[in-house]
Amino acid sequence: MLGVGTLIRGQDEARPDNFQALPMPSLEYTDEVAAATAHLYERVKSVIPAIEWPVMAPTIKAINDLKKVRNAVILAHNYQTPEIYHCVADIVGDSLQLAVAAAKSDADVIVQCGVHFMAETSKLLNPDKRVLIPDTRAGCSLAASITGSDVRRLREGRLASDDALVTLCLAPRGNQFATMEVTKQDWQLAKELGLRISCHAGDGEWGRNRPVAQLQAAGLLGPTMTFVHCNTLADDELAMMAAAGSSASISPDIELQMGHGWPATGRLLEAGIRPSLSIDVCSSNGGHLFGTMRATIGTERGFDNEQARERGEASVAAMELTCRDVLEFATIEGARACGLEAKVGSLTPGKRADVIVVRADSFGMTPMNNPIGAFVYNAHPGLVDTILVDGIVVKRGGALLGVDRARVRRAAIESRDDIIARAGGAAGARTGGDWIPEAYVAQA
Predict the structure, then answer these.
(1) Which domains does the chain have, with CATH numbers?
(2) CA distance 72 to 64
(3) Which of 33, 138, 219, 303 has the fewest CB neighbours in a 10 Å radius?
């Protein structure tokens, strides 16, 4: 038995002919199978009834035996079922960490228990290894949720205008997460429809494969694209971005928390790129740019002071990154990254009235010796009194207008409770504040 699955091939990779088929193993539940899998059932007995185990155990044993014969490693994404996640997987976690961990393995075969793009990512990071995905139908609803035809339909219909309140941008996976062939198709679609591009580059280990240099070599680097994170991009790649007029968006609080690498703020500035700020993952931070501004300036000043000490100085002689800088990152540079700097991003006559009014009568904002400094270091969403979007007031007196706050909160709590209930305690999932998902854990 070679194994049930579809081979994920690299470019010009032929079908392997050096794997001989093995006899199909017996899938009967015997005393031998029971003994060999008893320790595995201990891991899942709280979620798999004893009456179901005799049906699963023979297949689990056969898979574990076949792994040894084929020198294979099984990667299981966090959403896999318990018998896969706890009983046959060698490495579990999220998509990036799975691929990175597989690259450190000496296995000849990688079996990806996830969706197609995860197997493709594993192949990109492990070009010399054989990568299998067990189910040809293992698509990702997110990856398949929109097609080129869908984008064209939006561009020709609801989002045809570049002067509307909501405008269209293309956010493809990019060559860091997809093949260059797919990337070229996405870039061509953006060019055809006159759309800007925003994609991740340089976040974690993926970014060390020089994605920006690859784009430049393919003639795809240009001024209509924004690269998000940039932590692990090489200095010469940042210079390539600057020369091409590309923009960057950083989210230092998320990057530090998720292990993307040190924020690239200072290196981007040295390359001539003033970054914008982004939130990235609202579930892992406060979801507002006040916090992101503080994370940005605090981290970069830490770097600046450390470099000063390395030069034999007590600290920096002058602030290399100012509060005004990070305020601009959060406003006009964000507008510029979206191609909207002529319309929004600053309080300028002729631009649209996208305005927030922040209360300055709190203890934290008093006395206001430096308005911009107070805004960056002390302001928060609770101090936002009024918001105008294109001249229309959507928040007044600290309250959102036309929003049923009680209904929104109730729906969020009900959703949380439903997710925890359906998890059934898997991986320790629970409320209470002390649960950390057991991601990126290799199992024996």
Answers:
(1) 6-133 (3.40.50.10800), 148-348 (3.20.20.140)
(2) 9
(3) 219
Instruction: Output helix, strand, coil percentages for the chain, rounded to the nearest 5.
Output: 40, 15, 45
Q: For 168-218, what is each residue's pLDDT tens digit?
A: 999 998 998 888 888 999 999 999 999 999 999 999 877 888 999 999 999
What are the residues facing 200 on neighbouring strands?
228
CA 227 – CA 233 distance, rounded (Å): 10
Q: Look at residue 443 and tell me whether its pLDDT is greater than 70.
A: no
Question: Position of tokens 């790649």?
Answer: 237
Burial pattern 146-159, b for ≥16 Cβ within 10 A else e, equals eeeeebeeebeeeb
Sign of the CA dihedral with 169 first, then 170, 174, and 177 last: positive
Structure tokens given for 300: 């970069």
The CA distances from residue 376 to 118, 255, 256, 323, 345, in Å, are 39, 20, 20, 6, 16
Alpha helices in 259-385 (DSSP H): 265-271, 289-310, 323-330, 332-337, 371-378
d(CA 303, CA 292): 17
**Residue 159 tokens, joined:** 């989002």
Cα 179 to its chain centre, rounded Å, is 18
Cα 74 to Cα 368: distance, rounded to the nearest angstrom: 58
Q: Is 400 helix (H, G, I), strand (E, B) or coil?
A: strand
Q: Which two tokens mark 303?
A: 């770097």
Give yes or no for a contact between 103 and 131, defined as CB atoms under 8 angstroms apart.
no
pLDDT at residue 104, rounded to an integer: 83
- Find the helix or strand (DSSP H, E) in which 182 lies: helix 180-193
Q: Distance between CA atoms of 243 and 259, rounded to whole angstroms?
A: 28
pTM of the model: 0.74
DSSP letter for each residue of 344-379: SSS--TTS---EEEE---SSTT-S-SSHHHHHHHH-
